[in-house]
Amino acid sequence: MEQLTIGKLAKQAHVNRETVRYYERRRLLPRASRSMSGYRVFSDEALRRLRFIRHAKDLGFSLNEIKGLLTLRVNSIDTCDHVRERTEVKIADIERKIQALQQMKDALSELVAACSRRGKTNDCPILDSLEANGWFEDHLGGPQWLTRSMRKNHGSWGS
Question: Which of 38, 37, 35 is nearest to 2 (CA)?
């Protein structure tokens, strides 16, 4: 079993060192042991777990969801059905987000079509719509599905 420093672990898992430290703090990775010279060292298991986390994140799982999946991975009495159920919930969540994104695209497309390059910005239907309650409320009933960071990003056009 190879002992990996944080730098080697991060490099092999294709993440940065701060990500490794963050996952340790979130208890997604076990605390590293120390070498005789005081360096933190990780096992091959930490590398497997870090790759698992990265792949699950790539598929849209949150860190809390990943923690649950890791628990299922370690807990051998659970069945694959539990993992499938959680994955089906994630698929439904993604489908809701896709639908909301499509509605956002449709709303923006309507605004672009209404614009027809009229000239001055004081007569712009896009800006008028955003100013008068916004297209979220008009078309989607508000951005309930958006995360806090996504709302922040959507609210900062041109910032």
Answer: 35
**Beta carbons of 41 and 35 less than 8 angstroms apart:** yes
pLDDT 10s digits, 62-104: 999 999 999 888 776 767 888 899 899 999 999 999 999 999 8
Residue in 45, 47, 67 with CA at minimum distance from that of residue 6: 47
Query: Which fold, 4-58?
Result: Multidrug-efflux Transporter Regulator; Chain: A; Domain 2 (1.10.1660)
| Helix-helix angle 17-25:6-13, to 10 degrees | 100
- Confirm if 68 and 101 have CB atoms less than 8 A apart: no
Separation of alpha carbons 127 and 65, rounded Å: 38
Helix or strand run (H / E) with residue 7: helix 6-13
The pTM for the full model equals 0.67
Domain edges within the chain: 4-58, 80-154
Query: How far is residue 96 from each of residues 119, 142, 155, measured CA to CA in Å?
Result: 37, 14, 21
In sequence order, the 6+-apart residues with CB closer than 8 A to the CB of 137 are none
